[in-house]
Every structure is written in structure tokens, then in C-alpha cells.
Amino acid sequence: MNSPRPFFYRTAPAASFLPPSIHGQNVAAISACYAGPIEEGERVIAPIRALKPTVDLIGPMRYTALQAMFDPLVPKGTLART
């Protein structure tokens, strides 16, 4: 059984939420989910923010929004293997 990986490498797509300077470049991405009080979640992700990421999309959102977040980057029927 494969476990989810919160850190992965990929080629940055030409997506509107990414700066054009990284489109097509190899990037490292971190995905995170904290289900609990917002203040505690901010404390938990502080070490990630300390890395000064180029793009920071981490913030409060509905779980269904999190589930759909990567849909445009992974076409239907794609099976990720590790």
C-alpha cells in the first residue's frame, strides 16, 4: 500500500497561480492538510513558511476544495505511482 507523499517534484505548469518565471521549471512542492483549530495549524506549518516558498497556497479551506485543488494538474484517469 502506498502512503501519500506530502513532498514531491514536478515540472511547474503554466498555471495562473504560479509566477511565469517558474513555468516549465522543475520545482519541489509540499502539500499539507491540518484538520483542527486554525491557530494550531498556523503553528504546525510555520517551519514550512520559514523556507520562504515562491508560492504559498496554504490557508483555511473546505476539505472538498483541497480534494479538487490538484484536479487541473492531474487529468482524469491518471494513476500516480511511487
Structure keywords:
2 strands, two-stranded antiparallel ribbon, alpha+beta, 2 helices, 82 residues
Task: Describe the fold and architecture.
This protein has 82 residues and is of the alpha+beta class. It has one domain (7-73). It is 22% helix and 12% strand. It is built from two helices and two strands. It has helices at residues 38-49, 63-68, and strands spanning 7-11, 26-30. It has a two-stranded antiparallel ribbon. The chain is globular. The relative contact order is 0.18. The mean pLDDT is 83.
Molecular shape: globular
Amino- and carboxy-terminal Cα gap? 10 Å
Oligomer status: single chain
Q: Considering DSSP H and I runs of 4 or more, what fraction of the residues is helical?
A: 10-25%
Number of helices: 2
Strand order of the largest sheet: 1-2
For the largest beta-sheet, the strand count, sense and barrel status come to: 2 strands, antiparallel
Report the uncertain regions: none
Strand residue percentage? 5-15%
What number is the mean pLDDT? 83
Number of E strands: 2
The overall number of domains is 1
Order of helices and strands: EEHH
Give the helix/strand class: alpha+beta
Radius of gyration: 14 Å
